Amino acid sequence: MNKEQQKRVAAIHDLSGFGKCSLTVALPILSAAGIETSALPTAILSTHTGGILGYTYRDLTEDMRPFMKHWKELDIRFDAVYSGFLGSFEQLDIVKEFFSLFKREDNLILVDPVMGDNGELYKIFTPKFAKGMRSLCERADIIVPNLTEAALLLGEPYQAGPYTKAYIDGILHKLSQLGPKQVVLTGVYFDEKELGAATFDMERNATEYVLTEKIPGYYHGTGDVFASALLSGLLNNFNLERSAEIAVRFTAESILRTFKAQTDYRFGVNFEQSIPDLLKELKLI
């Protein structure tokens, strides 16, 4: 592809009308990073599901194949395919089909295996779904699980932190054996002062850690903020470690701004006002 040509991503996520996560995070972050982003919604909700009751939910499984069929007919090509929350078991197979239809030698498939946190599988999913997500990750170039999702993918018991480097290194290597050449593990910490991510590049056999000051509280949607910023770095030609560093810093800055404002933690983090700093990191301004 011509270097001057704009990069394009297919983002396969749900859309929550209120609450910053999934497409309402991925679209603005990737677009601000200069990347054309095409949305394939998996479900539409009135709000996200984290800590909010009474939300509406519309499953879009039946719409997904017609979406991708039309895109294929138009010969739309993507520099990356980025999947996140999937709304049904059948969608796992649909996304695999999408990968097969749109994979090229020079593009990237990134899977954020959204299915759990804090040691628990999300209530809308079953253990069977976790096994299906593993088969999706086998087809990815890069996966971005948290430690709960890593345990589910590996069929191992979840271990609460703080962690040791030996444990994290072991998890990274086992995840890479599923198929992806690169793994980014989020929620990594070795003490109560710092939190961040660990990266593993199979081709270089290199493990790196990117940690920043831990901010009190639990904030919804930060995984989507992180993965979207990570992909923004990769598609702006930064390597894995530097992209993870950019994503950790951007996510932490968004959390800190939200913490200082004392807004309702359920509604997501203020990533919007951190975008200028992200663009500086990406050397776009």
From TrEMBL:
InterPro entries: PM/HMP-P_kinase-1 (IPR013749), PyrdxlKinase (IPR004625), Ribokinase-like (IPR029056). Signal peptide: none annotated. Its EC number is 2.7.1.35. The keyword Transferase applies. It comes from Parabacteroides distasonis. The keyword DNA damage does not apply. Pfam families: Phos_pyr_kin. Residues 75-262 form the Pyridoxamine kinase/Phosphomethylpyrimidine kinase domain. This is pyridoxal kinase. GO terms for molecular function: ATP binding; pyridoxal kinase activity. Keywords: ATP-binding, Kinase, Nucleotide-binding, Transferase. One of its GO terms (cellular component) is cytosol. PANTHER family: PYRIDOXAL KINASE. One of its GO terms (biological process) is pyridoxal 5'-phosphate salvage.
